[in-house]
TrEMBL record:
PANTHER family reported in the protein's UniProt record: UPF0045 PROTEIN ECM15 (PTHR33777)
Family of the protein in this entry: Belongs to the UPF0045 family.
Protein name from the UniProt record: Uncharacterized protein (TIGR00106 family)
Lineage of origin: Bacteria, Bacillati, Actinomycetota, Actinomycetes, Kitasatosporales
GO terms under cellular component: cytosol
Record domain Thiamine-binding protein: where: 3-92
Natural source organism: Streptomyces olivoverticillatus
Domain of life: Bacteria
One Pfam family hit: Thiamine_BP
Database matches in InterPro entries: MTH1187/YkoF-like (IPR029756), Thiamine_BP (IPR002767), UPF0045_domain (IPR051614)
UniProt-listed NCBIfam families: MTH1187 family thiamine-binding protein (TIGR00106)
């Protein structure tokens, strides 16, 4: 499964990068395949391990601010691995073909 999620602290002002970095650090230390962009962090793995990482990422932010917004989108598909890379590669291949 692939989960794309965004964790944002509430009530701390506009500059939230330091808080978001705490969440991303949890994801990167998990060892699961992941990717972070300007809007979301995506992580790939089995249901329990991915959801555990999301929970710990939220907790890392919550520990510093008390209120957190979580947006989560999941692609649950049995038997697929390396979806973070292969899905993008498919789109790139189609773009290259014209």
């Amino acid at each position: 499964m692939i989960v794309a999620f965004s964790v944002s602290p509430l009530g701390v002002g506009e500059d939230v990068g330091e808080y978001v970095a705490d969440a991303v650090r949890v994801v990167r230390e998990s060892g699961l395949p992941n990717r972070t962009d300007a809007m979301f962090t995506s992580i790939e793995g089995e249901w329990d391990e991915v959801m555990d990482v999301v929970k710990r990422a939220v907790a890392a932010v919550e520990a510093r601010c008390g209120r957190v917004s979580l947006v989560l989108k999941a692609d649950i598909r049995q038997g697929v691995t390396d979806g973070l890379t292969s899905k993008v590669a498919t789109v790139e291949r189609h773009l290259a073909e014209g």
